[in-house]
Every structure is written in C-alpha cells, then in structure tokens.
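User: Hello! I'm new to structural biology and keep hearing that structure can be predicted from sequence alone. Could you demonstrate with tRNA-2-methylthio-N(6)-dimethylallyladenosine synthase? Please show me the input and the output so I can see what each looks like.

Assistant: Of course. The first part below is the input, the amino acid sequence of tRNA-2-methylthio-N(6)-dimethylallyladenosine synthase. The second part is the output, the predicted structure written as tokens.
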Amino acid sequence: MASNTTRSILTGKTYFIRTFGCQMNLHDSERVAGLLDSYGCFAAADPAGADIVIFMTCCVREAADQRLYGQCSSCKSLPTPPSGKRVVAVGGCIAQRDGERLVSHVDNVDVIFGTQAIAHVADLIADAFEDGGRHVDTEEGAAPAATTLPWHREQPFHAWVPIMTGCNNFCTYCIVPYVRGREKSRPFESVVDEVAGLLRCGVREVTLLGQNVNSYGRDAYGAPRFAELLRAVGETGIERIRFTSSHPKDLLPETIDAMAEVPAVMPHLQLAVQSGSTRVLKLMNRRYTREDYLGLVDRIRERIPDIALTTDIIVGFPGETEEDFEQTLSLAERVGYAQAFTFIYSRREGTPAARIEDPTPREVIQDRFDRLVKVIEQTAHDFNQHDLGTTVPVLVEGSSKKDSRVLQGKSPKNQTVHAPIPAGMDIESLVGRIVDVDVDTARTWYLSGTVVGDPR
C-alpha cells in the first residue's frame, strides 16, 4: 500500500501495545509505536480506548502462548472504538514461529507480523482496516531493520540499542535461533553514531542488546569486537552503559578489561548459567563446564570486585537428577547472585530437547524450584548488605508504585533503590536525573535511604 494511502487510513487512530518477553521485544515495541506515530496515530492508555491493539510476543516458555490466546480473546468483549472497527495485531516471536497458523488458534487476529517485518506493520494494519481481511508477513530479510524506524521511547533518559540480531548457539531448549534467525551484527560505526545521537537528545543510559552480545562482530568482521565497541560507546560521553545478553562461552578477557576500565560501563553483568551441572550443560549444548563458569566468575571478580552478577537458571531440564540439581544449588551459593531469573523447563516444539522424555514427577521439579528460589533470595539479601551505609548514585525512573511520595530508580549495580522525595521537589523534576542516596536499609530486592545533595 502506498504511504499516503496508509497515512490517510491511520491518521487519528489510537493504538495500544502490550509487550511480553525480553528487552529486544521492548525495543521492537518502541519502534512499532514510533512508526505508528509517524503515520498520525496516538497512543491509548488501555485496549478499550484503542482502535489498534498490538501484542508483541515471546515464545521462550509455553505459558506465553496461552497468555497470548487469552489476551486476544479478551479483545472480543471490549466496546467498539470510536472509529467503528478495532484491528488486533500479533508480532514478535510467536508470530514469526506460527505465522498463518495463529489464525486457527485465535479467530479475531487481523494482522500477524514476524520479527523481521516490523517496517511493514503500518501498511498491514491499514490494509486490515480497508478490506477487513487478515494480513500476514513473516518473510525473513525482506524489510528494513527495526533500527532504521522512528522511535517512541518509553523513557526519554534511557534507550535500547540493538547491536546485533539472531543467535548461532542453538541451545537444545531454546527456540530463539529459529524465530530470530542467525547472528547479524550492525555496522560498528552505526552503533556508535546512534549512541552519540541519543546523547545529544538527552539520553543518559543505553542498554546494548543482542541475543549474545559477546559475539558481536564475528559475522561481519571475522572476530568479535564487543570489547572495542564498549570502549567506543564509552568515548561518546554517554553516562551509563548496560548490555544483555552475555553468553559465558564467548566472554573474552578483553571484554572484562573493557568493563573494568570504561567508567560508563555499569558494574552489573547478566551471565546466564542455566545449570550448575556439567552433565546437564552438555545436554543443553551450552559448550562450557561448571568449572569453566566458576573460573570465569573468579576472573570477573578479580577485575571488578563489587560487580553484581545476575543469571538465568532452568530447573527440570529433561533428565536432570537430584545430584545435578544439588550442583546448581551449590553453584548459586558459591557465586552469590544479586538476582536470578529462575524458570521451570518449558518444552518447545522444534527444539532438540523437546524430543527427550523425562519421567521426573512435576512435584519433584516444583520442590527443586522452590529450594532454588530460597537460595537466590538469600544470596540477593546478602549481596545487598554490602551497600548498607554507603552512598549510591541513583538514576530516577519515577515514583514507587506503592507510595507516590517515594522515588524509585536504579543504582549502577541495577539494584532498585527507594527514597522519600525531598521537600520542595516533585517527581516530574527528578525523573531522568541522578540523585545520591545514603542507604540505611538493604532488603532482598531493594535498597532504601535518604537523598543527599542536589540532583544532577
């Protein structure tokens, strides 16, 4: 459809986007919102007030499918919007994986667009409004990259910056390589220029995104250049740099050095272990051992002693024994994670692990999961005690959901920090600024204290 026709159809319409899954999906949602803005659409506060409802999906766990079906079905009971018609669209990984098959699962979906078809979203939605049909685009590599599209950032002081897409690792439990494709790195200069431009627009913190950022550049330049990229991004003057995800097998010494030496790189690393058992790690095709991982942790802490290490752990991978699980528990205690995203294994059709039969009773797996959660709660609590009595620079994100008189933000270690809003100030004037907080309370999942000095 011609852009002028799309604009005439979409101008004045409202949209609502609900995002599930990883940070890459959050970035994609912000690009979809920016694209719709550019065609004259306006964001709505909820689905009931939207002419266009978009679900950006994740298919890492089975529950995501059921959640999507429920969310789509709930749109049937919404009141008719002012335009007289509502278009429901599904994007992201489930859309890429299932394509037209989604139509048989959810009968009120009008538009289905894959992970590489974001640039076509406005045209697809306009077509659905015009002809009332269903429109699907899951073709790979045919559209401009999402990074070239307009942007509607959720937070003006923070930006997601994809440095690569896709994954070449093929962990046996993971569907991502099948829905995001092979690794494809952005040009080095493009990433650096984007961060420099974001800095000029007032952004203070960027998060560099990739399914495995440590392998950035291997496909385009013949060798990884992530350490070099961290240094170059730091030289732009951006105040805070974060990144995710980081595969242990590709975390090179030069990257650890860059993390230690570039002041803007925050002392926080998400380093997914998945299991503490070498036997299970081999079944997962993770390509490192328990000993490899612990040695890596030691090298990181030698260079960055106060770093916050967080992780992902899967419980109940097919064939996991009690001995395997005990090794996961002991590894978590040994590392002392500041936080961990813990999951019960979810079988994903199309992955090698889906073919492995596992007789382990569900109640045994649930008991292991609960035991792991208790260990992580303890290590997180212990980690936060190190900041008790210190002064922490906090990037303010907004007010606490529980108390509007309390600000909430993130420390360099990515800890959530609370503090009463100082007298004479309001949250609107503090969002996006950095305040120093004297920490007097350290709980499992947050720090709290008192703002000292002036915001900056």
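User: So the tokens describe the shape?

Assistant: Right, they're a compact way of writing down the 3D structure. Reading them back into a model, for example: The chain has three domains: 3-137, 149-385, 391-452.
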